[in-house]
Amino acid sequence: MFLVANWKMNMTRDRIGKYLDALDGRRLSSVLTGTRHEVVLAPTHVYLEYLSGEASRRDLPVRVFAQDVSTRTEGAFTGEVSVRNILDVGAVGSILGHSERRQYFRETDAEVARKTGLCLKGGAVPLVCFGESREEREAGKTLEILRKQVSGVAEEAAKASKNGLDTPVYLAYEPVWAIGSGANASCADIREVILAVREDFSWPAPPRILYGGSVNLENIASLAALEHLSGFLVGSAWLDPEVFLNSILALS
Ligand code: PGA
């Protein structure tokens, strides 16, 4: 399983240090022994370098992802952070198109697809979030919305593969109504979405699909039993390193 802690805009250097103290190289390694789980931590851009440096200094088996990248490659774009920038400071991929970016910063499907293409081209792993709002679900538009959100991403994956690039694409199904709400999607909802996403596009290779939205210690093991589910993207619950470690144990 691909296990991604999305710290959002929550951590400081001091708190990151304490989080890593709690994970402790040996403790995390022993929790991961015999499993095929991969662990990813996603801080804000300013802590990417600190986190990746500390992770390697402490011998922690974690990878570092950014939470977003620019639609531009380089140049006069004040305040933007490029794919090259995040790779340069130790990140290996980026979350893209999180619903908070779509909702609060008006990010469009076209921009998310463009960012996906730039990641693939630059050698950073894209983890693309998609998901419907409560109104869209209630109006029976879930699959229609998801197809709109994912189609540009699938095109970018096909383009990259045609160009001989083999960086994998990860997707995260995150229904907007489930994020931070305490109400997770049901296994049946997630299964339907996974099948639609796998089957409705011509992926060069089946994308790995994660679930996110109110994942916690109580529900993670039953969600993990879903066929074709490749991991979790978790916000609130994994701000606590003990819950993070216990979640990995619950999956083992
Ligand atoms: P949550 O957030 O785990 O707090 O619901 C998930 C996310 O936003 O990625």
Bound molecules: 2-phosphoglycolic acid
Question: Which architecture would the CATH scheme give at its second level?
Answer: Alpha-Beta Barrel
Round the mean pLDDT to the nearest integer and report it.
Answer: 96
The major pleated sheet works out as: 8 strands, parallel, barrel
CATH class: Alpha Beta
Percent of residues in beta strands: 15-25%
Oligomeric assembly: single chain
Low-confidence stretches: none
Spatial separation of the terminal alpha carbons? 10 Å
Number of helices: 11
> Mind telling me the C-alpha Rg?
17 Å
Structure in words:
The protein has a single domain, classed as Alpha-Beta Barrel (TIM Barrel). An 8-stranded parallel barrel has the order 1-2-3-4-5-6-7-8, surrounded by 4 helices. 44% of the residues lie in helices and 15% in strands. The longest helix has 21 residues, at 142-162. The mean pLDDT is 96. With 252 residues, the chain is α/β, with parallel strands linked by helices. 2-phosphoglycolic acid binds at residues 6, 174, 179-180, 212-215, 233-237.
Give a short overview:
The chain is an alpha/beta fold.
Note the main attributes of this structure.
single chain, 252 residues, alpha/beta, TIM Barrel, globular, binds 2-phosphoglycolic acid
Write the layout of secondary structure elements.
Blueprint: E1 2-6, H1 13-23, H2 25-32, E2 38-42, H3 48-57, E3 63-66, H4 83-88, E4 93-96, H5 99-104, H6 109-122, E5 125-130, H7 134-138, H8 142-162, E6 170-173, H9 187-199, E7 208-212, H10 220-224, E8 229-234, H11 241-251
Parallel strand pairs: 1-2, 1-8, 2-3, 3-4, 4-5, 5-6, 6-7, 7-8
The structure holds 2-phosphoglycolic acid.
